[in-house]
Design a protein that fits this description.
Number of domains of chain B: 2
Mean pLDDT of chain B: 89
Order of helices and strands of chain A: EEHEEHHHHEEHH
Shape of chain A: elongated
Distance between the termini of chain B: 30 Å
Number of domains of chain A: 2
Helix content of chain A: 40-55%
Structural class of chain A: alpha+beta
Number of strands of chain B: 8
Structural class of chain B: alpha+beta
Radius of gyration of chain B: 22 Å
Low-confidence stretches of chain A: 208-236
Number of helices of chain A: 7
Strand content of chain A: 5-15%
Helix content of chain B: 40-55%
Number of strands of chain A: 6
Mean pLDDT of chain A: 82
Strand order of the largest sheet of chain B: 1-3-2
Low-confidence stretches of chain B: 10-15
Oligomer: heterodimer
Strand content of chain B: 5-15%
Chain lengths: ~240, ~220
């Protein structure tokens, strides 16, 4: 473990302290519960990496039937037509509104697949530490956490269509089994992202040499990268 | 905008004494210890290592959040009590409420009943729980009184539930569904639809001004 972070600072763990993940309050490392917000204190979340992988795998397992079973079954007078997640989006692009079709394809295909790849990428990258990678990995992790929940769109589309389209013999829409598989998969991958203690990303990939004279106090919010050496303005 | 966070120590030997830990903030993303002074309203402190906003206090934040949450709660009551959408095609009429949308999975097959529970939770139950918890925790703060018992537990619950309250995602799903049926039928909007749209706007405004760690500091100070 490197005590110095290269920003003229020190981590709570290196200082023998523990920071609250909820409210940021700092305590001696022996303390178990935060006095400010009541959250449990962990220097690093226990079993974080195992939990991430377990939920990730569960999400992947649920994602397979989500793409094989029909998502939505449309019944009209003349025919019964069932469509998968991808099929429904492709239909929308060909016969309906291409823009909305692409939005659905993004939410139900690109985001889930991208999420599996991104989480696996972050998890593998923090195992083989490389200097300076922390920032990009952390941004990727935050993007996954932020975007992941939007995959739920497709489940809501099916819910509202199935509730709304009840036109006797003329037309009806019934949700298919893919809906529950897909919904479960989205929830599992959200749990996977939430299980990752983001501090692990920085522990592994930002062990810059001790005594790095980077100052931080005047860091410009428009440029999220930490300032380089030489920009020191507020010696601490 | 200025940044006020400063790393708390140059080396382990100057590690802060345990007595003055309350002025420190450990970055929840990268664990860097920061010394953050009492910030003026409107100022913002970022972690110099990873750029995470540590504190961004606003004047009257608690009162604004409580007001927006109460507005959203009233709108949610409207949104679940009235028809949401209706369609007309070939002389046939069909309408659905928000609750019908959640129940549609259970109606189709018993095997999908759990999904109905999940959808009802994501679009109605959890958003309502968050709003009630926020109002409970922050109302006394907004009124300048001491926080109620279990205010910390309520505020913690509201923040933990944040990713799971999906009202805004539901409304985008509705927009997509409308495009799908537009060619099939004439669509009518019920009062609940507009209530839900307004609710999403209020919740988004509330979450934009909500700085969790500033409110934790305020809750602790008011105790």
């Amino acid at each position: 473990m490197t005590a110095q972070t290269g920003h003229g600072g020190i981590t709570a763990r290196a200082a023998g302290l523990v920071g609250c993940l909820r409210c940021g309050r700092v305590f001696p490392k022996e303390r178990a519960v935060c006095t400010r917000c009541g959250a449990r204190l962990h220097s690093r979340l226990p079993d974080s990496i195992q939990r991430v992988w377990a939920w990730w795998l569960a999400g992947l397992v649920a994602y397979v039937p989500a793409n094989l079973y029909p998502m939505m079954i449309t019944e009209t007078v003349t025919e019964t037509y069932s469509s998968t997640i991808v099929g429904g989006a492709v239909d929308l692009i060909s016969y309906g509104d291409p823009f909305v079709g692409i939005v659905v394809l993004l939410a139900s295909l690109a985001i889930p697949v991208g999420k599996f790849v991104a989480i696996a990428w972050v998890m593998l990258a923090i195992r083989r530490a490389r200097e300076g990678h922390a920032h990009r990995l952390h941004q990727l992790y935050e993007a996954v956490e932020f975007i992941g929940r939007w995959s739920m769109i497709d489940v809501f589309v099916v819910a509202i269509l199935a509730a709304l389209v009840h036109l006797g013999q003329v037309a009806g829409i019934v949700p298919g089994l893919a809906a529950i598989c897909f919904g479960t998969s989205v929830i599992f991958t959200m749990l996977s992202a939430i299980s990752l203690d983001p501090r692990l990303i920085w522990d592994a990939t930002d062990p810059l040499p001790a005594g790095g004279a980077r100052a931080a106090a005047a860091h410009d919010p428009a440029h999220p990268m930490p300032p380089r050496a030489g920009q020191r303005t507020h010696p601490t | 905008m200025t940044d006020h966070a400063a790393p708390a120590g140059q080396d382990p030997s100057s590690a802060p004494h345990h007595a003055d830990l309350s002025g420190l903030v450990a970055c929840p993303q990268c664990d860097l210890l920061n010394r953050v002074p009492q910030l003026a309203d409107g100022a913002r402190a970022r972690c110099p290592r990873c750029g995470t906003v540590l504190l961004a206090p606003r004047a009257g934040a608690a009162a604004t959040i409580v007001a927006l949450a109460m507005g959203a709660l009233v709108l949610m009551v409207v949104a679940v009590s009235f028809p949401f959408l209706a369609i007309d095609a070939s002389g046939l009429h069909s309408e659905a409420s928000v609750i019908d949308a959640a129940l549609s999975f259970a109606e189709a097959s018993g095997r999908m009943a759990p999904l109905s529970v999940i959808v009802a939770a994501l679009i109605v139950v959890l958003p309502v729980t968050r709003l009630v918890a926020l109002i409970y925790a922050l109302w006394p703060l907004a009124a300048g009184r001491r926080p109620r018992a279990h205010a910390a537990a309520a505020f913690r619950l509201a923040m933990r539930l944040r990713p799971w309250a999906m009202a805004e995602i539901f409304i985008i799903g509705v927009a997509v569904a409308l495009v799908k049926v537009a060619s099939l039928a004439q669509v009518g909007f019920g009062p609940s639809f507009w209530a839900f749209v307004a609710l999403v706007v209020l919740v988004a405004a509330k979450d934009t001004i909500l700085c969790e760690r500033s409110l934790w500091r305020a809750l602790e100070t008011a105790r």
